[in-house]
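User: I'm curious whether this sequence folds into something compact or stays loose and floppy. Could you predict its structure so I can see for myself?
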Amino acid sequence: MKNLIKYLVISVSVLLLSTFTALSAPLKVGFVYLTTPGDHGWTYAHERARVAIEEQFGNQIETTYVENVPEGPDATRVIRELAQQGNDLIFTTSFGYMDPTIKVAKEFPNKMFVHTTGYKRSDNVATSNIRFHEGRYVQGVAAGLMTKSNKIGYIASFPIPEVIMGINAFAQGLKSVNKDATISVIWAMTWYDPGKEADAAKVHIAEGADVLAQHTDTPAMLQTAQEKGAYGFGQGSDMESFAPSAQLFASVNDWSISYKEHIQAALDGSWASNDTWCGMAQNCLTLSEFKNMPADVVSKVEAVANDIASGGLNVFKGPIITNEGAIISGGATLNDGDLWGMNYYVQGVIGKVPN
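Assistant: Here's the prediction. I'll summarize afterward.
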């Protein structure tokens, strides 16, 4: 009897140790999407990445996704169901899925989870993100060179560090070429709502803004800008087709690089919880073709983009000064921990970060 118990204990231990080392093909991979993939924006970029990894790995993997999953209890249910359905690796693709991912991962210690844009990890939960703020800096440079009114309108989603650092990066780029320009921020308190985004854009333009930026997901802002004769930037994917005379360029997310790394690691048995945060240097973030700008402006914007991609320019190299005059950094470059702790606006941004 003792030998039987010993055998069972050893068998269970071996099973736990080999969970991430011997997965039979095909590897089942699940994805949780905030919205419908459609043909633009955040979820569309994730869907393009899913298709890319299917093309690369072929019959080694089998993928599925669930769309229109609200952040909160519904996400917990969907993530749990994907695990129960036999998915070995699950990607959860919105910031608000962070706690639900951690919760379900505890229930399924032999499954692998990757949460994009979050910061909480565990033995079987990794995190992955893109340095969106690098593209925002380039947008700020373009806005500073293109504005006539020196008023920039910014539509933000939620006051979390990722969004705040994007606003501040935009402001750093703006102030590097135009000391007189300012940024007004409207918080939509949603990731995806065409009506709210369009209304916010109209308010900005009515207040004199002639260039708009966004950290929301639909092309509604750009379409409004085109109707009103203003300019703007695409978010997450190239949105030129929705507003060809308004988009200056788009920041385009490529999640396939991270996806491929995690899937390959799962297949070869080397998967481990880690954190990846890649940017323009790794082509996780690219910029679409520059349009609707004079040649001299394009030349200056391209130079800045190339400088960031080559590592010659760090978006948050000091001085970093808040819009209330507090010196965050006199000359040193902010580290990643500093960025994730951002709860302030830098010079050039009007107002205060909401609580």
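Summary: The longest strand covers residues 247-253. The chain has two domains: 22-131+255-282, 132-252+287-340.
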